[in-house]
Amino acid sequence: MSTSRTPDRESAMAKAAVLAEALPWLERFHGATVVVKYGGNAMVDADLQRSFAEDVVFLRMAGLRPIVSHGGGPQITRMLDRLGVESHFKGGYRVTTQEAMDVVRMVLTGQVQRDIVRLINEHGPYAVGVSGEDAHLFTTTRRLAVVAGAHEDIGFVGDIVSVRPDFVTTLLDDGLIPVVSSVGIGEDGFVYNINADAAAAALAAELPADKFVLLTDVEGLFADWPHSQEVLRTLSLSELRDRLPDLESGMAPKMQACADAVAAGVPRAHVIDGRIPHALLLEVFTDEGVGTMVLPDGTVDA
Question: Which is the most buried residue in 35, 59, 108, 129, by most CB within 10 A?
Answer without folding.
Answer: 35
